């Protein structure tokens, strides 16, 4: 045990004495947490809006006032001719154009139906769909209130939406728990994927091989620092998510940290495999990023796994981050108990055992 503790202390000293390593552990997670926490959101505010009101009536001004008063839209232009629409959208000065026709008021009073045109810049389809949804909501609310005010029957069926787990549909509540997994994976992978490669580059790995250490002792000595650093990073990010970004943590802390521990074991195993196959730190870093990019894309962090092709969905079962994303969002938002997440725990445990065993085999092969 004393030899093992000495090796662990040596690994920590190697990491903490190097200014670049210290910065990798401390700097990027804080910067990325702030950037992702505020910038990564599906909510749209202040969408550039242009108004083209050919009716210029009391009813059209009432509808326009609803758009002007909405936090989702910001009027940046008022149009008076058709030929002004294309230049505004082509140059991306506006995303949405609200066009109210000449007969808007007359049609409403005579036939109680009329058309309102919403022209949306479709180059960014996600933004276009969200902005169109906001506009549709405003127009539907105008319809209901106008019909009630004039004694007309309302629409035969009205949609009443109730969102469970996220009543206000705040996208930050969905994204920030995922950031816990993303940043924990990045830091852990970088720390472990460079550990053996650093030794080889500095010509100290051969010295380590002639010591009395056995392969499993070297493996534990390399894994424990990454585990402790990853646990510390995850704890810090969770603390910021709950107390700074006000993301609710409804589930058990024990359940959450069980998932973190199993995820760290699987990530450390992959990192040590990459490091044992690398001869330089540059190779280790490139190997880490070769794993990180597909792991994040296939985790369901930003895009649902259900929308991916079936063959890609099967590949995601090899990705430990897939299971960790489910655990994070289930514990944070749903308060899911431990027993309902066992199906997510055991695949990460198997991935960790296989990757750590492979890393130990690679160490043993190097030693003998």
TrEMBL record:
One of its GO terms (cellular component) is ATP-binding cassette (ABC) transporter complex. Keywords: Cell membrane, Membrane, Transmembrane, Transmembrane helix, Transport. Residues 128-366 form the ABC transmembrane type-2 domain. It is found in: Cell membrane. The chain crosses the membrane at residues 21-40, 174-197, 218-244, 250-273, 285-306, 345-363. InterPro entries: ABC-2_transporter_component (IPR051449), ABC2_TM (IPR013525), ABC2_TM_bact-type (IPR047817), ABC_2_transport (IPR000412). The keyword Membrane applies. GO terms for molecular function: ABC-type transporter activity. Pfam families: ABC2_membrane_3. It is a multi-pass membrane protein. Its main location: membrane. It comes from the Bacteria. Belongs to the ABC-2 integral membrane protein family. This is Transport permease protein. It comes from Gimesia algae. The gene is ybhR.
